[in-house]
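tl;dr need the bound structure. longer version: we got a ligand (glutamine) that a collaborator sent over and nobodys looked at where it sits. i said id run it. heres the input, straight from their email, havent touched it
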Amino acid sequence: MKHSLRVCWLYHDIMDLYGDKGNMMVLKKRCEDRDIDFVLDTCGIGEKKNLCDYNLIFLGGGDDKTQFSLIPDLLSRKENIKQAMDENTFVLLICGGYQLFGQYYTASDNQKIDGLKFYDYYTDTGADRTRCVGNIIIEANLDGIKTQIVGFENHGGQTKNVSKPLGKVLSGYGNTFDSGYEGFYDGKILGTYLHGPLLPKNPVVADFVITKALQKDDPEFKFEDLKPLENSFDEAARDVLFKRLNVEKTR
Ligand SMILES: NC(=O)CC[C@H](N)C(=O)O
């Protein structure tokens, strides 16, 4: 069976912080190297798109003002996003995008916006406008695949009441200054504060996202079914961060 990865990048023109676009470039390359068709579609404010047509939805990070500007459009797509998720479209969310799938987001000026409310987590602002900034390494278990994920975080938002964190923080902050946990993963969405961009620095996560997306069309598809690729440049970049943060690289 010829597989295809059809991505819809929501608000591609305004939600793209710290190289989030690199995530799309990596998916394209890792698919092409395996003869998997790759289609990248984008969806801006006001554009008509049926998100059920895709097997992956991607939403990157953004500053507070940008998050506020898109929220009416995002909320107008709530039913369609829910339907896509029910039909096994996988969702990858970075930082500002991750926040907007929860109950609400309170920005640094204390203005509050409703999120999509798909999950119980919510995001308050850091006290006295403090922000979690810096490189971060977490330890995650992605449906049995144990991996260490590296990235860069820069958020004022403090995300609380996270029932299923993506991983345990080994160095850096994560969902809040002191929760010790980072992100959210429940099999349907993977939300994380990690820019970096995320996927170029974490080939295992990139392949995991590809696997989850392909499972919409082929539920039997497994991570191990992906042809292994050569990751020496990615690993060299990871080595630098592990060394700099003084964390033992075990995977
Ligand atoms: N990097 C981001 O996406 C920032 C998200 C949000 N504006 C915050 O500061 O918490």
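gonna send this back to them w/ a short note. The two ends are 31 Å apart (CA to CA).
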